[in-house]
């Protein structure tokens, strides 16, 4: 399995440093989920891992090799990336978008193969987008567009998947469908998957490994039961909460303690 790691990386935008001197080993063949408050650096870290953002210090390594020094096609064959709010040319159909996931695998003497067609169709089927294959992306709902982008990432057929808020715009049923799909890819095909998620209980349920970030650094990392504690939730989110066992999955379940109940007790 391909290994992905960051060693003492610093990342930011223009003159603003978001992440400074961060080191992280992504467990191969596992689902790693990044959590933390808004602005803590989760998406910035994912961009750094995916070579979208160049570190101002340190290095990201793919299978022991500095990722910045690898050919772009080599990286694209190994790692699929779904950023936040991706954009596509106007008039592009769903199938055309999903087909873009196969471009890293194209050869100059063979622009499209039966394998490409098969993987594109499979990606459309497993994301429930086959019926929309010939619809323009702009004509779809936000949730349908998100599923089309996920299908494109799956069609790329890479060993490593990086997804930034893949359940954005999806209703609860489709959120679970997408996370179940990623879990199946991980279990059945051994894909290494890194996801940024805001929903803590979904993160705890689906992660093999949780990374909680705070103000640009890793506050705590480990198994969900090690990370999801009342103390860590307070330190990372400034939120009082009770942690109980999820009655379905037996994973940690975060119950926020609202001020509403404190006020009602005082009255």
UniProtKB/TrEMBL annotation:
Gene3D superfamilies: P-loop containing nucleotide triphosphate hydrolases. Its main location: membrane. This is ABC transporter ATP-binding protein. It is a peripheral membrane protein. Keywords: ATP-binding, Cell membrane, Ion transport, Iron, Iron transport, Membrane, Nucleotide-binding, Transport. It comes from Cyanobacterium stanieri LEGE 03274. One of its GO terms (molecular function) is ATP binding. Residues 4-240 form the ABC transporter domain.
